[in-house]
Specification:
By secondary structure, the protein is an alpha/beta fold. It has two domains: 189 residues, Aspartate Aminotransferase, domain 1; 243 residues, Type I PLP-dependent aspartate aminotransferase-like (Major domain) (Aspartate Aminotransferase, domain 2, 3-Layer(aba) Sandwich), CATH 3.40.640.10. Keywords: Aminotransferase, Decarboxylase, Lyase, Pyridoxal phosphate, Transferase. This is Aspartate aminotransferase family protein.
């Protein structure tokens, strides 16, 4: 007969860590402070060999031992992606206030699935309200935090899918996407996360119909061609994905003109404003997002230009009722969604980290004006790098610098091998990091400015390594690769 198992004493190493917790947190603080203080000297990218895997410890080494092992084996290979010369993708850093908020997020370890027993959900609602104001959206838009732009786009398009069902007299959340039949999704320059979302939602990647863009080196949709595509649907409802800042050249669709098409055609307007939405903070560039408030759903990524730690984004919609219909969790112990539904009824996640706290800290610490300064400085530095590139015979711009991304390539023979060799040479220098792309059929590179630390001196360092690397791969130098 098996004996009953009674509660045993806490594992001795765990108990020891608990007794020394303040000391351990101080050790982590000192280690982190040293890493942040040395960020400028850390290689911006670290493409070297990674440590070989080790077996799982049987007894464990305690928190201090784990910190030591991490410092020895893994920390040296971490990149300086939080620093000022990491210009790959669109990657912000973490402002001092947002880092403070992120540490406290882990310390408090709040689950913001629901509002019961904690004020954490109310803090998220307050933060969403601040962000809504920051981006010029009205009270009709409700929002919630998610992990990033991909999930934000997915949530927005999931609500759009339910709206299509409403228009066609079916409930997609009950009957499935097949009840809709073929869905038409129209966009000029949709981000890859949109097709990923269409795949996840059962709409299908191939249902994205690319509408021609404006002539003259543009990525913005031709609104007249969009109107013609909608006209050809013969009244069938559709989804239009508009862009507030394209990935390669940060081009903006005419959101107001697209929204005006709703007077004639039946469509859901989703706006991907992952980082371009931050143009709203600058009086000089806010016109680029005029009409954002007319969107039915909006995606904004916060670990980009708000400079909060990974992972954080926000999604907005005018149709919270449809959002609840899609995402509500049917379980007696969780309760039914009310007029102000808990967040677990609004996003794919039941368990939710308090992602709002780093954003709350940064917005409280620096306000609208502090974040406006970051945006405007990044734009000015992108323009500076663009100007420098035009003076280098081995390089050329692929598009005008419209906001914070510089899209460029080799002046001669910009093959994939040669352009990727240029990117690799930049990364190997440890001075900077840029990422490859293809624009208008040409292999190129993108330098995206979104880090709060980046200065003019950093930009000059980036330019210097770009110029040197271009000389090493240019046919003119006699060293073609």
């Amino acid at each position: 007969m098996r004996r009953p198992i009674y509660a045993a004493a806490m594992h001795r190493t765990l108990a020891d860590d608990l007794s020394r917790l303040p000391e351990l947190l101080q050790s982590a603080r000192d280690f982190a402070a040293g890493e942040v203080d040395g960020l400028d000297g850390r290689p911006v990218a670290h493409p070297g060999k990674v440590p070989d895997p080790e077996p799982l410890p049987a007894e464990g080494h305690g928190a201090q031992g784990a910190l030591s092992r991490f410092g020895e084996r893994w920390a040296p290979g971490f990149s300086g992606s939080a620093g000022p010369r990491y210009l790959g993708f669109v990657t912000g850093g973490a402002t001092p206030a947002s880092l403070t908020g992120d540490w406290l997020t882990g310390a408090y370890d709040q689950n913001v699935s629901g509002g019961g027993g904690s004020s954490a959900s109310a803090l998220e609602r307050e933060t969403v309200g601040w962000l809504r104001e920051l981006f010029g959206l009205g009270e009709a838009h409700s929002g919630a935090f998610v992990s990033g732009a991909t999930v934000s786009n997915t949530v927005g398009l999931a609500i759009a899918r339910e709206w299509l069902g409403e228009r066609l007299g079916v409930s997609v959340s009950r009957e499935g996407a097949a009840a809709l039949g073929p869905v038409d999704v129209l966009s000029g320059s949709a981000h890859s996360s949109v097709t990923k979302a269409l795949s996840v939602l059962g709409i299908g990647r191939d249902r994205l119909r690319t509408v021609p863009v404006l002539p003259g080196n543009r990525e913005a949709v031709d609104v007249e061609r969009l109107a013609a595509a909608l006209e050809a649907l013969d009244g069938r409802p559709a989804i239009v994905v508009a862009n507030a800042g394209t990935v390669n050249t940060v081009d903006f669709d005419d959101l107001r003109a697209i929204a005006a098409l709703k007077e004639r055609y039946d469509f859901w307007l989703h706006v991907d404003a992952a980082f371009g939405g931050f143009a709203a903070l600058s009086p000089s560039y806010a016109h680029l997002v005029d009409g954002l408030d007319a969107a039915d759903s909006v995606c904004v990524d916060l670990h980009k230009w708000l400079n909060v730690p990974y992972d954080a984004a926000v999604q907005f919609t005018r149709r919270r009722d449809l959002q609840v219909r899609v995402f509500h969790n049917e379980s007696p112990y969780l309760g039914l969604p009310t007029g102000d539904p808990d967040f677990l009824h609004l996003t794919p996640e039941n368990s939710r980290r308090l992602r709002a706290l780093p954003a709350w800290f940064s917005l409280m610490a620096y306000g609208r004006e502090g974040h406006r300064e970051i945006v405007e400085r990044n734009i000015a530095l992108a323009r500076l790098l663009g100007e420098r590139i035009t003076d280098v015979p081995e390089l050329r711009l692929l598009a005008p610098v419209r906001l914070n991304v510089v899209c460029f390539t080799l002046a001669d023979e910009p093959t994939r091998e040669r352009v990727h060799a240029l990117a690799a040479a930049v990364a190997a220098s440890g001075e900077a990091y840029v990422t490859p792309t293809v624009y208008a059929g040409t292999q190129g590179l993108r330098a995206a400015f979104s880090n709060w630390r980046t200065t003019k001196a950093d930009t000059e360092r980036v330019f210097s390594v770009l110029r040197s690397a271009a000389l090493t791969v240019s046919p003119r130098s006699g060293n073609p690769c």
